[in-house]
Amino acid sequence: VKKSKFTSIYVEEFVCVVRDTKLGPEITTRDIPNVGELKLKDLDEDGIIRIGAEVRENDILIGKITPKGETELTPEERLLRSIFAEKARDVKDTSLRVEHGKRGRIIGIKIFSRDLGHTLEAGIIKKIIIEVAQVRNISVGDKLSGRHGNKGVISKILPEEDMPYAADGTPIDIILSPLGVPSRMNLGQILEMHLGMAANTLGYQAIVPPFLGARHEEIGEELKKAGFPSNGKLKLFDGRTGEAFDQDIAVGYMYMLKLHHMVEDKIHMRSIGPYSLITQQPLGGKAQGGGQRFGEMEVWALEGYGAAYTLREMLTIKSDDILGRSATFDSIIKNETIKPPNSP
């Protein structure tokens, strides 16, 4: 984490299209109905956000209004209208907003429009692309990988002084579990680690073609040349207590990459959300604000644990027992005991 290792900048584009509708053209403007001044503070008079603004979810990137058809007025509305002598604005707010769970800083704005001589599809007056960048430091839950399919998720980030260290006091950067090797049979990562240790100490770069790489005898020789034991294992000391670990531990240099599955994109929660119209079960997926799928295997886990009431709740009122859902909501509000679910 220090020296901002594994920090990536993630750029995303949001596109807003201004169309010509049957009722008249859409307009980009900062004059949007029913939106407070606070939300509009970063917009210019065309309703486009300024470069450098910080945005969070639901903030307006481009203010856009679409004309609405004239609606039949009720007598009350007509009365109010004539008293206040104002024509209610027949537009609806169709602004482009930052999606759920996104954040960042505006780094670029591209505007394509008919007036500027750009060719656009039929019915489109202008197209605005906004680039939002965010700096993402590495965090618990992000995914790293080596070059041998040895991918994994960060489970903990510790201060340097708590990490294990070698006899000369060099701290270890990343600890990988040895259980990731036998089942996947990717021994290349071990060879890469040992050869990296030797190459780093002797100051050369090893170019190793796949399937014709250095044999382990050669790697052992290189380690000996570099002054390490030929099995590549060193005595390490626990950074928290300063005691040596019982066994020697393999240490070396390995190339690690940060993958695009970052926890910030994955994190998601639901309390009340949409239900599928067909099965009446909650929708799935982050994009729909859905729930976590509780599959067969998870049901078996609860069954094996004997958690009968949790299971009943999962399979009935949290899922497709419509009457039970509303009854449960009522009893929670009224602070009564929750009624038993209905059988279908």
Written account of the structure:
By secondary structure, this protein is α+β, with helices and mostly antiparallel strands. The protein has 3 domains: 2-136, OB fold (Dihydrolipoamide Acetyltransferase, E2P) (Beta Barrel); 143-258, DNA-directed RNA polymerase, subunit 2, domain 6 (Dna-directed Rna Polymerase Ii 140kd Polypeptide, Chain: B, Domain 6), CATH 2.40.270.10; 268-334, RNA polymerase alpha subunit dimerisation domain (DCoH-like). Helices cover 20% and strands 21% of the residues. The chain is built from 7 helices and 17 strands. It has helices spanning 75-84, 188-202, 216-225, 263-266, 296-305, 308-315, 322-334, and strands at 8-21, 24-25, 27-28, 54-55, 60-62, 64-67, 91-93, 96-97, 104-113, 124-136, 143-145, 151-153, 165-166, 233-234, 236-237, 249-250, 257-258. It has a 5-stranded antiparallel sheet with strand order 2-1-10-9-4, with no helix packed on it. A 3-stranded antiparallel sheet has the order 3-6-7, with no helix packed on it. A 3-stranded antiparallel sheet has the order 12-11-17, with no helix packed on it. The radius of gyration is 30 Å and the shape is extended. It starts with 7 loop residues before the first strand and ends in a 10-residue tail after the last helix. The model has no long low-confidence stretch (mean pLDDT 83). GO terms for molecular function: DNA binding; DNA-directed RNA polymerase activity; ribonucleoside binding. One of its GO terms (biological process) is DNA-templated transcription. It comes from Candidatus Nomurabacteria bacterium CG10_big_fil_rev_8_21_14_0_10_03_31_7. Keywords: DNA-directed RNA polymerase, Nucleotidyltransferase, Transcription, Transferase. This is DNA-directed RNA polymerase.
